[in-house]
Design brief:
alpha+beta
């Protein structure tokens, strides 16, 4: 764990933050669809559940999505545990993806759906949660890492 410690820290911190925010939503809102206006017409907290993937794709697919979340999570943990030492941006990217996959995966296994609440109405975007944000930012960091050249352990002697 010491080799890629930032990966584990990001994954654990993201998972905790995701689960705390979802718990807050389920305890603070009494009905599905209930909303709190943060910036009226622009950004709201709206309590919805999603039985599909991000942005409600594959609605009703929670059964196979839970296994996908588990597989991604386990694959990332194996990579961090037994793989090479990752660069900072790789650890950040993979850690964020782990946090998101675990956060939504826990919801799917425990409840059969994911709690969503971040509602950007200005652009008519689907309601989502922090796990979705973490996954998307993780992908961005991995793209940045892929364009920054190989790490010292991956460079050849040519």
């Amino acid at each position: 764990m010491k080799k890629n410690s930032f990966f584990w820290l990001v994954g654990l911190a993201g998972l905790i933050i995701d689960q705390i925010t979802k718990y807050w939503v389920t305890q603070s809102f009494t009905n599905l669809g209930q909303t709190i206006h943060i910036w009226s017409g622009v950004f709201h907290f709206t309590y919805v559940i999603n039985t599909g993937a991000a942005f409600s794709f594959f609605t009703g697919g929670a059964k196979w999505l839970r296994w996908l979340s588990l597989g991604v999570s386990l694959g990332l943990m194996v990579l961090a545990w037994w793989g090479n030492k990752m660069r900072f941006t790789e650890q950040l990217g993979y850690g964020l993806i782990l946090a998101g996959a675990l956060g939504n995966g826990i919801d799917r296994f425990c409840f059969g759906y994911v709690v969503d609440f971040l509602d950007f109405r200005l652009i008519q975007f689907p309601v989502f949660n922090l796990a979705d944000v973490f996954i998307n930012f993780g992908i961005i960091f991995l793209l940045i890492a892929s364009f920054s050249g190989p790490s010292s352990s991956q460079q050849s002697n040519f």
